[in-house]
Amino acid sequence: MLDEQDKEDIYNYIKSIITELDEKVDRPNVVIEEVLSWTSFHKYLTKNVFELIIESSTSFIPSGKESEIIANLIQSRLIQDWEFQEASVHLRQIQNEILKSTQSKTLLELYQRILQEDYVPLNDSQEQQELLASGLVSIESGKLRVANRIYKQVFNQNWIDKNLYKTQEGFIDANNVAKAAPENNTPEGSEDNERRPSEVARVFAYLFIVILAVSFISLLVFLILKSSQSSSSSKFARSVSECQKFSYELDEALKQPPNRLKVITKGLSWKKEQGISLNEQCEDFRKNVEKSGIVPSDIENKFNQVLRQEAQTKIDTNQLEEAVDILCKISDEYEYIEDIKSIFQRWESTRGNKIQNKINQLKSSCPAAQY
After folding, report:
1. Which of 312, 260, 253, 311 is nearest to 77 (CA)?
2. Is 329 exposed, middle or buried (0-12, 13-18, 19+ CB in 10 A)?
3. Cα–Cα dist 149/45, whole Å
4. Is residue 1 predicted with pLDDT exceeding 80?
5. Cα end-to-end distance, the chain, whole Å
6. Rounded Cα distance, 204 and 147, in Å
7. Beta strands per DSSP E along the chain
8. β-strands 137-140, 120-121: how paired?
9. pLDDT tens across 236-250, in order?
10. Which of 68, 119, 234, 273 has its Cβ near the most Cβ atoms within 10 Å?
11. CB-neighbour burial class of residue 319 (10 A; exposed 0-12, middle 13-18, buried 19+)
12. Rounded Cα gap, residues 129 and 111, in angstroms
């Protein structure tokens, strides 16, 4: 149910931007109605769409074109490739809230019913309350409905199917583990349960010797590996000052786009020279930072973020082949690698043969194309 205060806040916001809106559109009232038909007075989305309209340096919305232009703007800047769009961070937050829930499968199934049947009667169950708390649905006339048209297009049946499959896959794996556990069907009182004490003692003595031998071998292997890693680490380690400087350059590149290409070239060069991750190369620097009581900087992750930002710049200018090249440089440890894989899968089926061939060409060396 829409809070009256929220409505009032939206109306006040619209009054505050009406002068700017007049400069961008022929009929402000029609544009306002069209935007609200997409957002259903959702505070963040409403402000987001109006900001996109006002901040656009080229588009002007003439009379009669309001519906078409606003639909295209929402599609291109919020819905399409929403896993990447800077303006769509709110949508990613909703997804995370649903998928990280302990009852994500139940929430997805409930949401699927609402999406397919248009509404579900309100019953105040725990799953309904949790779905409401996510903001994905709202109460209207005592029924649960999808909160707005933008959510309907982003969190559609394909999104449900993909994530239900993932939760089902986890459930099946857990069941398989349980089924794989050996069953003890030996009847009580059988011969196996009546071994003589001397026989049992021999079995335990044998097991003790085996465990001791395995422990010794494991310790030996561990010491060899540790020695090997130490020599490898010292061989490939970069100086603390080098890594400190590079970490600072990454932070600056995340704030100032002109610095990105230089930093990307340097990071790729380091990885090519050593053949190991940036965190491994900068282990000494990270340990020094940790000793100071500060959480060490994840240099590899920061580098991945810079690559993703640069790729987004290419996507915004429709340079998709260059974007594929850059996204393929992102390591498979990146926290959002699954989002990039989803983008690649969608591009393969929607962006034509050129992009499909490009992804296939890089597939063997591209973590994002491993699906």
Report:
1. 312
2. buried
3. 11
4. no
5. 40
6. 64
7. 120-121, 137-140, 143-146
8. unpaired
9. 578 878 888 888 888
10. 119
11. middle
12. 12
pLDDT tens for 303-334 read 998 999 898 888 888 888 899 999 999 998 88
CA dihedral 123, 126, 130, 131 (to 10 degrees): -40
Interacting residues of 173 by C-beta distance below 8 A, sequence separation 6+: none
Show Cβ contacts of residue 333 under 8 Å, excluding neighbours closer than 6 positions.
277, 300, 301, 304
**140 three-state secondary structure:** strand
For residue 362, the Cα-to-chain-centroid distance in whole angstroms is 22
- Cα atoms found within 13 Å of the Cα of residue 177, Cβ hemisphere only: 5
Q: Which pLDDT tens digit goes with each residue over 3-21?
A: 678 888 898 999 999 999 9
For every residue of 242-261, DSSP letters joined together read HHHHHHHHHHHHHH-GGGHH
Q: b/e map of 241-270 (b: 16 or more CB within 10 Å)?
A: eebeebbebbeebeeeeebbeebbebbeeb
DSSP state of 285: H
Contact 281, 237 (CB under 8 A): yes
Q: Which of 311, 309, 245 is nearest to 278 (CA)?
A: 245
Which residues, including other chains, have CB under 8 Å from residue 90's CB and lie 6 or more apart? Answer: 44, 45, 48
What is the DSSP track for 113-133?
A: HHHHHS-EE----HHHHHHHH
pLDDT band at residue 216 under the 50/70/90 scheme: confident
Cβ count within 10 A of residue 218:
10
Rounded Cα distance, 38 and 15, in Å? 19
Residues composing the chain: 371
